[in-house]
Hints:
Order of helices and strands: EHEHEHEHEEHEHEH
CATH superfamily: Glycoside hydrolase/deacetylase
CATH architecture: Alpha-Beta Barrel
Number of strands: 8
Structural class: alpha/beta
CATH class: Alpha Beta
Distance between the termini: 27 Å
CATH topology: TIM Barrel
Shape: globular
Radius of gyration: 17 Å
Oligomer: single chain
Strand content: 15-25%
Amino acid sequence: MNKEMIVLQCWDDGVASDARLVEILREYNAKATFNLCASLHTPERTPGRLGLREMKTVYDGFTIANHSLTHPSLAEIPIEAARRDIREGRDRLQQIFGQPILGFAYPNGSYNEPVMAAVREAGHIYARTVVNVEQPFPPEDAMAFHPSCHFLAPDFWARYERAERNGVFYFWGHSYEMRSEAMWQAFRELIQRISSDSRARWGNLTELFESEKERF
């Protein structure tokens, strides 16, 4: 790999195990985006989900993106309902975190052209799918930004090495998918390996897309 590669990661749903995840990320100065659904959180933590009162502290220093208000499959509901869920999800997160919310991740990977248009109209500059592909950056349509792979992909490291030609490697997942201490240790080693790779640097999704907008 002869040129710098930007490594991006994002995590969905605001689950309680994100608190453990961010401690690992902070240990290795790894950037990340967390895709959240504001209405799914109560003030206090529940067994599976972070509480509203702790979220600003848990996610301090990381980027927040919209995952809709209620996590519906947006392409399967009336478009007016989808628009409302997208817009209100963004508005609520901006109120909670006091920062612009510019990214989006499609709940259940469900999207179509009208939904993509609604995400763009609501003020987002990119939207992530769950279609894992190796593609050049920037994507043809920022509202269909496909990740390189899931963090548990069996060919994760092969895809990582091949990302040289694209200059961007982007992985995603849910922290609840780490169901054993062995999986948590493997994840720590993954973050450590990327952080120690002189060919790569951790990137911020919104900054990356904003810089692309300025170029054109």
